[in-house]
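For the sake of transparency, this paper describes our internal protein records without simplification. Such a record has a labelled line for the sequence and another for the backbone structure tokens. Nothing more is needed to write down the fold, since each code stands for a local backbone conformation. For reference, a complete record is included directly beneath this paragraph.
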Amino acid sequence: MLPVALLWDVEQKVKLYREQAVVLRTVRLGEADRIVSLLTFGRGKVRAVAKGIRKTTSRVGGRLEPMSHVALQCWAGRELDVVTQVEVIDHFRLVREDLGGLSQALSMLEVSDQVAQEGQPCPQLYSMLVRALKTLASSSSPLVAPAYFWKVLALEGSLPVLDACATCGKPEEGSTTLVAFDMVQGGALCRSCRQGLAVSPDALKLVRRILNGDLSAVLAESPGPAGAEMARLAGYALEAHLDRRLKTLHYGYSLGTGASPSPACPQASL
């Protein structure tokens, strides 16, 4: 039988773990601490206390800002874990210095925070977010976040019907044209079934290209009216899926960094 001291040492080591994560948001705790929400590779969403992070003498204060990609060590607690070590992998400084890029990044962080579940590993979501932030750092396209939204919907298994009428099932071919979009009905709608938001063929084509592996080419092109329409549809579809308003998304659009995702889009004529 192992000595008590040795058993205690083993237990403490089991409670310590290392992870890579993206900081989603932080909340003040007391006078000097913060609660940090993290999207990790192997543990899903983790909420941990960063002790003393708000002190002017703290060496890790700038390492745990929202959007930072970090490698960290934590101690697993009963309700909240405790951050014990942090190393920065990427601050995404170029994204932080660009208003449009920052707005898109914050909306992706909020979406990830809503989708990720504590204690439920989702390495696909973590990898998607890291790739999207890296893309933002190298691309000035306003369509990075909307593309991320569509991919999140696909990952969640809630992707709307895009190549046929969601109500009657008629494929988009011949005389059948998809002219509207409604998440309640399940996606794109033909002229006979139309309701919800009006949608153009070019906007639906952009969504299909993003989901079919042509994202790099889409981001390299000028977004134009179809890109703005696709972005509105992405925000609308994701808010409908989450059943909540995305604060950072609307804040960013109010600054002129995108198109409003709310159904201020034209309504489909009945």
